[in-house]
DNA sequence: GATGAAATGTAGAACGTTCTCCATATAACG
DNA sequence: CGTTATATGGAGAACGTTCTACATTTCATC
């Protein structure tokens, strides 16, 4: 604003590292050093540079940074935002990142493997510093190949043998066991699991893990002989049809463990519609402890796996990996039961 | 794999535009032209280059692209992923982007203005090609300042006077009118609106728009004299308390219009808990037509604003702006009513 | 053929950082 | 005072693209 404003030979108005250097009367390299707080900077220099940055409102270009060194961005890949579990994970990631100078960018693949691959590639091409993949659909070898190019932490992906990347999981086997144990404790013996249609199943997926836990707990309860698992397709229409069929069955079980709240809640709705009383005719327990499950109207017992916590742990693991760790880590959190009326009728009946 | 493999003087293993050029026996510039399908490329050249790209599995670095020209990425900014309306918008954005060579990166600001600003800046620093801001909290002048640096389309931000950026909205005034008209048509006269606590209110926000529509419709219905608006705070605990107080009121109205499904559904839950029958004692209509509202257990009448469609329209607008349009566009979609049992009791009663 | 216009391909300078040497100044030590 | 270590600051080459300006070729048209 003053007269000697002309001094700057900038032809454009973008403030670059060069502008800052000129303004502070130091070299470009010096400014860069201050930015990255690298070794070999005196207090005096740091002060000058910091001042200049402040006055000019300088922000380093992430694009340029990525071209040469760190971009201070981590990518988060989600298969599907509709699942109420995922926002929690994001919240956890953002929480850990907030005080650092890292930032998260999120990609959504809508469960399409094609898009998932291309988003991961994009994030690599952006030279992001690391990736958190939530419930990826990709096979382990492919993930390992990507992990050679960029630090990766997978959440909701059971592959404790992976050496190229870390995994962070709730113990889904244990979670399913807890669910079954709760049903057994309520006295139910005729129990079935409703799981996800076959197309979705790598062994690494949370669904298959829950099936394993379910079977084991049934076995332990002396019900190993019949531990039936019904498969519910994902396509909305087929899904409802399958559930209606299940509810109408003559030999319908007395209690059901659903692999996910999403299915459990739909089941509850259809049960009400078809006159099947919960829990008098059918006890239901879900998985995820979503906010919908907690609604008084729904009141669904569920396994809580604290997505927020998983997000936090995953992010911390990723940062430590970015900062040099190379040995793979595989972290397992124990989930917990949240008991509600769908499990066992209480004195204050469900219907208000 | 053959003997003459040594020809490549590549010291690293990253496939760059130079690798491709060498492999195809053309210049770097030529490859770049093919990539951007720019003018001045013969069929023969294009074929050679395309082949080389294919064989080498070349992917251009987004970081480097951003440094010079387009990055072919658009940023999407969300205030909060928990709102069930937002996944729909994302789906719309991704749908339009899928066939193009653009990709979306999402940032989540958790309703914190600080973080919102810094995410927008980051996206600019990444040289993203354009931004879709969903329900931004920032004042119009600030958005205009950003819009000078990057094409911006705001969704859920009523500022038809903005010249620097586009807006895409459902007509929230009209939506509220439709809700009130539906209540009037059912014969209710004693109607109240439950809106959002005061802290949240620029005039540009969807909430305030819905209040305006509510008042106008009440006026038209001859109820202008008393068109009460209750304010519900956002903090979870205060929120519930306020709703309980509302439900317990002696002069509780006969029907209520909630600014959002999130609130309406909580209200429904508390009503059940407190023995207030819906719709016999209290009719409820929400806003967003979230998937939860559609559940048989919930059965909440709601205004549908098709987030997916808004996302699609916003994305198309953004692309046209990236490609040169400068005159601002302000698009308004008309929402529609989805009638359900919370509005008026049907012969098949709510309780199955 | 000669001439101009249009089409095609290339060289090489940006873009804004980081980071590896270097050069210098200062301190420490015999 | 030399000599050697240490701390500080700077030059300049990357990084992998895009894109302008130019050189060359091809094609009509007279």
Blueprint of the fold:
The structure is a homodimer of 352-residue chains.
Chain A: H1 17-24, H2 28-35, H3 43-56, H4 62-68, E1 73-78, H5 85-97, E2 103-108, H6 113-125, E3 130-134, H7 140-147, E4 152-155, E5 166-170, H8 172-185, E6 191-196, H9 206-220, E7 229-232, H10 236-248, E8 255-258, H11 261-274, E9 283-287, H12 291-294, E10 301-304, H13 307-322, E11 330-333, E12 336-338
Parallel strand pairs in A: 1-2, 1-3, 3-4, 4-5, 5-11, 6-7, 6-8, 8-9, 9-10
Antiparallel strand pairs in A: 10-12
Helix pairs in contact in A: 1-2, 1-3, 5-13, 8-9, 10-11
Chain A binds a DNA duplex (30 and 30 nucleotides) through helix 2 and helix 4.
Explain what the structure shows.
The structure is a homodimer of 352-residue chains. With 352 residues, chain A is of the alpha/beta class. The first copy, chain A, folds into 3 domains: 3-60, Orthogonal Bundle (434 Repressor (Amino-terminal Domain)); 73-171 and 307-334, Rossmann fold, CATH 3.40.50.2300; 172-305, Response regulator (Rossmann fold, 3-Layer(aba) Sandwich), CATH 3.40.50.2300. Helices cover 42% and strands 16% of the residues of chain A. The first copy, chain A, contains 13 helices and 12 strands. Chain A has helices spanning 17-24, 28-35, 43-56, 62-68, 85-97, 113-125, 140-147, 172-185, 206-220, 236-248, 261-274, 291-294, 307-322; strands spanning 73-78, 103-108, 130-134, 152-155, 166-170, 191-196, 229-232, 255-258, 283-287, 301-304, 330-333, 336-338. In chain A, strands 2-1-3-4-5-11 form a 6-stranded parallel β-sheet, with helices on both faces. Chain A has a 6-stranded mixed β-sheet with strand order 7-6-8-9-10-12, with helices on both faces. In chain A, helix 5 (85-97) packs across helix 13 (307-322), helix 8 runs parallel beside helix 9 and helix 10 (236-248) packs across helix 11 (261-274). Chain A is elongated and about 85 Å long. The termini of chain A are far apart. The relative contact order of chain A is 0.12. At the A-B interface, helix 4, helix 5, strand 2, helix 6 and helix 11 of A face helix 4, helix 5, strand 2, helix 6 and helix 11 of B. The first copy, chain A, binds a DNA duplex (30 and 30 nucleotides) through residues 14, 16-18, 26-30, 32-33, 35-36, 38-42, 45, 60-70, 127.
